[in-house]
Amino acid sequence: MDQLTAYGVALIPIIVGLSELLKRFGLPNRFVPIAALVMGLFFSFFYLAPGEPKRAILFGAVLGLSAIGLFSGTKNTIMSRKQ
Q: What is the DSSP letter of 46?
């Protein structure tokens, strides 16, 4: 079974941070999840599983979708505390 290593999981907060930077540079909010998914795929193809496209797509999707969930969960937690 394919597994993400600690290095792969450590990419999730990096993707969240880069997504936030893109947002601050003017990327509309509706494109942030797509950007996170693309970054997950990028890191996966060039860092986690170079030369293994099927594995890279799987890992990239996991990274990108996890980053989206972390971003959304953090945002919702912060917004609920402000109310």
A: I
Does pTM top 0.85 for this prediction?
no
H/E stretch holding 30: none
Per residue of the chain (83 residues), give pLDDT as tens.
456 677 788 899 999 999 999 999 999 988 999 999 999 999 999 999 899 999 999 999 999 999 988 877 777 677 766 66
Kindly list the distances between the CA atom of residue 30 and the CA atoms of 23, 34, 36, 68, in Å, as whole numbers in the listed order. 10, 8, 11, 12
Residue pointed to by tokens 């450590």: 10
Can you tell me the distance from the alpha carbon of 44 to that of 41, in angstroms, rounded to the nearest whole number?
A: 5
